Amino acid sequence: MMLQASKAYLFLLPVSTSAKEQIVGCVIAQRIESAMAIASPEDYSSPTASLVSVDATASVFCHPAPLPTPLGISRVFVAKTHRREGVATTILDTVVKTFVHGCTLSPEQGQVAFTQPTGEGSALMRRWGKGGVRIYEE
Questions:
Q1: Residue 90 domain boundaries
Q2: 57-73, pLDDT tens digit by residue?
Q3: 3-state DSSP call for residue 8?
Q4: What integer pLDDT is reported at residue 85 of this predicted model?
């Protein structure tokens, strides 16, 4: 059901030996209702903070209260040969500008959430989202 409501964004590069293109990056985006705010390192030691561990290996913890969030990023893929070249950032920037016609969404304002990220995905999420990206469960 969620896949039917999703949009796939592809990053294509020309193949030098032909008129064809190859897919080197892909982001799957979907409409969501809510997500959890990522906890800051200061929240980890607070005795009053009841945090949810999203991924212990990526050190991602969230506040359990759901917050309104319109855009979910369920998958990000970049071919190994094209990582660290800005492919994922370029696709994500395009997603927030085009997902809702006539409205640019802001990761810094908590309008974008990722599913539970891997270690590399967590680094991308934090870097690209500048601290405002949230986490949601599929």
A1: 3-135
A2: 667 888 989 999 999 99
A3: strand
A4: 94
- What is the CB neighbour count within 10 angstroms for residue 99? 21
Count of domains in the chain? Answer: 1
| CB distance 42 to 65 below 8 Å | no
- Cβ neighbours of residue 54 under 8 Å, at least 6 residues apart? 60, 61, 62, 116, 117, 135
**pLDDT at position 1, please?**
43
pTM of this prediction?
Answer: 0.87
Phi, psi at residue 99, to the nearest 5°? -60, -45
7 close to 28: Cβ distance less than 8 angstroms: yes
Top pLDDT among 49 and 33 is at 33
**Structure tokens given for 18:** 């032909």
Share of the chain above pLDDT 70, in %: 91
The CATH number of whichever domain residue 20 belongs to comes to 3.40.630.30
Rounded Cα–Cα distance for residues 36 and 20 (Å):
41
| Among candidate residues 77, 75, 88, 83, the one with its CA nearest the CA of residue 114 | 75
